[in-house]
Records
---
Amino acid sequence: MTFTSASIKNSRRPRWMIVDENQEILSLLRDILARFNDVEVRYFDSPEQAWAVFEAEPEAFEFLITDLEMPGTDDSELCSRLRAFTPSLKVLLSTGSEILSDEEAAEKGFCAFLRKPFPFAALRDALAPASLKYLERFSGLNDGLRLVRVN
């Protein structure tokens, strides 16, 4: 689904942005986050696409889930660029990389750190720093996997 600038501006629902070059991760997150009827979610497979949409309306989004290592960007560049425009933006880092510790991720401005692959329970816990009232919809999800460390 494509949102125009007008549809984003006129919406009263929270707006989230998901950025990951892995289509399987985007599909998984799309399926999980479909439970959030009160949230608009935009999905991007490149940081450049996400940046272009965000740059047009920096106040339109309040929460971002992003990968760490994506083509065309290094380290926490996307997080830094977006938060320079909107300091209140909450950014959750979701990565399979081991190059950052939880403490380093926090120092770089991420509100939470989620290691891939992650179970539903870990995603639910990682969304808590976004101060979102929508977490009740996750309460029944349990995929039986071990809980990974989430900060």
---
Amino acid sequence: MKSHQEHPNLDRGLLKGVFLVLLFILGHTVTPTYSKRLFILIEKNDILKHIILIWVIYFSIDFADKSLKHPSETFKQSIFIWIIYLLVSKQRLHFVLLNLLLLSIIYTINQYKEYDIQEQDKLIESQHDKQLDNYIDIMLYLLAFTILYGFYDYYQYKKLSKKSQFKLVKFIFGSKV
């Protein structure tokens, strides 16, 4: 008999960090409470925006993860999420919505698995746990595909529409680079 364990391809802290970042991004709609000069500086500098985003991701992972990890490990995870963010932020709306839906499904399935682990005998891995792992695997592969295809689709769209004015660096990092 196998003992219960978290899904092998899903880091719980990483997933919670992603959702914390999403809340941070959506929280931007709240009226700013900092000085106007700081917001103007950030608004005019896309590199600074990316640096801030990386550190928000880093803090979010560190905050959400109960285990103590080496800071370089958390930083690597932050860079990984930031790259995913770059890919997802360069997509048409229907791909973004599909990716958010898939991420929400993965999160929910993982919550069911964690609940099952807590409620069942921790020494016995149930068939239900294996089935949930299979669903998570399918959703992770589907999410990876939709992220990559959505980025490629938008890249092609922008490249065709901008023609000779298309610049890859500006496409990826923003126009204020």
